[in-house]
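Run: sequence + zinc ion -> complex structure.
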Amino acid sequence: MKDRESLAQFQRQIAELQKKEDEYEVLKGAHIQLISTVENQERTLEELGAHLSESKLKMADLRDVSKSLRDAQWAPDKEASHCRLCEKEFSISRRRHHCRHCGNIFCHSCSDNTMPLPSSARPVRVCDTCHTQLLQRYSNSEN
Ligand code: ZN
Ligand code: ZN
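>> structure
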């Protein structure tokens, strides 16, 4: 009787242990899944980081390009000997004027217009060509 009782207790303990082991297996599975999730996220973060530094480089490139464009657009005074539009030669009486829109150099009569530009608060000098273009653009955007 006593032996049978202890045997039953022993079997209960074995069943208990079996249950624990099952739980352990489930936990282990969950743990492995977690680790792979973390690894995936780390990989994603690394990729994101790589993309980020890539777009940072691209942005720096763009900044360089726009800077060189800006520098190139403003035509140097010395190189312009003639008005870009009417091609009359510059002299003391016919002075050079920069168009604030295209950056080229014109005589006074070919750049005798002022227009408001996004780059400045007050109306600035623009050449006849840019004046026509800008008038068209402004009237289009108003419609
Ligand atoms: Zn001119
Ligand atoms: Zn112009």
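>> summary
The pocket of zinc ion (ligand 2) is lined by residues 99, 101-102, 104, 126-127, 129-130 (CB under 6 Å). DSSP finds two helices and four strands in the chain.
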